[in-house]
Design goal:
The protein is mostly helical. The chain is 53% helix and 0% strand.
Length: 90
């Protein structure tokens, strides 16, 4: 029983990772996350946009006019990423 609880705790830690301070580069190796990013900011995951913004946090992307993201859109993006991750850890 203890092993199961530890396993669930570790799985939930992965879920907590998507916050406004998450960096764009940390999402680029995840296919599902890339789809969500492209949905809210088309082209952001491809050159030339990615070169200037990949080290930025998600909330900082709202400050880049090239991203076409508002703070509300970033919050919605994060919420969608968390829903996807939650489904993966179920």
């Amino acid at each position: 029983m203890l092993i199961v609880k530890i396993s669930l705790s570790v799985r939930n830690l992965r879920f907590v990772g998507r916050t406004p301070s998450c960096r764009l580069i940390d999402l680029l190796d995840q296919k599902e996350a890339m789809k969500v990013l492209d949905k809210y900011a088309p082209g952001i995951t491809k050159p030339p946009g990615i070169f200037a913004m990949k080290s930025q946090t998600l909330i900082a992307l709202a400050d880049f006019p090239e991203s076409n993201l508002t703070v509300e859109m970033v919050r919605a993006l994060i919420e969608e990423l968390n829903k996807i991750e939650w489904e993966l850890v179920k």
